[in-house]
Write the structure tokens for this entry.
Amino acid sequence: MTGTVALVLGGGGAGGNAWEIGVIAGLADAGRDLAEAADLIIGTSAGATAAAQVRSTLSPAELLALVLTPPVRPLGHGEAAPPSIPMNTVFERMRAVGAAATSALELQRAMGAFALESDLILEPGAKQRRAVVAARLPSPQWPQRPMFIVAVDAQTGELASFDRDSGVDLVDAVTASCALPGLAPSVNINGTRYIDGGVRSSENADLAMGFENVVVLAPLGGREGTVPEGQFEGLRRFPGADLDSQVEALRRQGSRVEVITPDAESRTAMGTNQMDPATRIPAARAGFAQGQREASRVTLS
């Protein structure tokens, strides 16, 4: 074993990010402080933002308070909306990619090709997108304690895992992990284009191999295939990329794995479109209450 506790934070849009912060704050309130106990945090997509938030100097209670504070939008700032592609068009293309792919790598490459094609429209909004991500992070600096941010190479379809030793700016790493093909431009890091880590797996829990205890917060609950239409993470999964397969592999090599997924109250709070920022406050509140209830399941040593 390479460590004691790994915390895996999966993708799931604005609502998923808020739910994860709520759960972590609820667990801490009940005496299970994962922010302090985790030897490694792995973040994908919305979970990448949550990972950077949890690894900051802010406590879980402080992070929750920020989520529960409605954002203040300055009046008359005059900033034009970034270019976009209709969401129905994007998700239709994603479904077509998933249906045509014969392997996980083929799917990832096809999603990368779609992202690069979409950049012809979306690239002018890249700086604005990066600024939005940066504003969500308590600090632009990598934390001292281990954290992996997961993305996918848009050209090769291969996994990319960034940490403080990668020579990559934290804001760029998180922006890449959240770069949903067709909805956000791919991110250029040292001449390579990267896209959302959720293209490979919503959780990427297999990166926690070697840890005695693995806690997975999965906003989508491993529900690929049953996620409401219009959810990015409902993209088709091949064996090994789905959460059940990854959890089973971890358990086979000796890890104790606890997977926390949204309960009925949390699912209601997150709604059918977790990308909607309006879901953040109700999702965080429901996550906090669920975290308090789930505390007995979590082992920190």
Q: What stands out?
A: The longest helix spans residues 104-122. The radius of gyration is 18 Å. The first strand starts at residue 3 and ends at 9. The CA atoms of residues 133 and 301 lie 33 Å apart.
